[in-house]
Design goal:
144 residues, 3 strands, three-stranded antiparallel sheet, globular, 2 domains
Length: 144
């Protein structure tokens, strides 16, 4: 049975800060490596997109109360974009078998979003707007 969301369900674990720092370091390392390999910025994960789809997400009425919450609380239609990708940060040949990913962006949703999303927005708004110091500077091409 689905669980209705409540802020009390989200509990910060004792090692959460260390986990976030470790993940951030790993993603930064992948970004630095792919930047050096390609000479420009590449996503640290899901770098190779395979296709985009535009469509409509239709929220039907008469959902059970356990499902009728958040985005699904009321019948509505929203524009949506789906992106298919492969997981690695490297842009690999299609002959190499790796897991695939699917991202869904729902556009025009009213409200403030979930608490985790609001915290992320606050963090992003506090990021410096200058070029991050960890990003390598492009190397000049060797003279021919």
């Amino acid at each position: 049975m689905p669980v209705r969301y409540d802020p009390s369900l989200e509990q910060v674990q004792p090692d959460e800060a260390e986990t976030i720092a470790s993940l951030t370091g790993s993603l930064r390392k992948i970004s630095e490596t792919t930047f050096e390999d390609y000479g420009h910025a590449v996503r640290s994960v899901h770098a190779k997109g395979h296709g985009l789809l535009k469509g409509t997400l239709r929220v039907l009425g008469h959902l059970p109360p356990t499902l009728a919450q958040g985005l699904f609380a009321h019948p509505a239609e929203y524009p949506a974009v789906l992106r298919f990708s492969t997981n690695p940060g490297d842009v690999l040949d299609d002959s190499i078998t790796v897991p695939r990913g699917l991202a869904v962006k729902v556009i025009g949703v009213e409200g403030s979003g979930c608490p985790a999303r609001r915290r992320m927005r606050r963090r992003i708004s506090s990021w410096p707007t200058r070029r991050p110091s960890w990003r390598p500077t492009p190397r000049p091409s060797p003279a021919a």
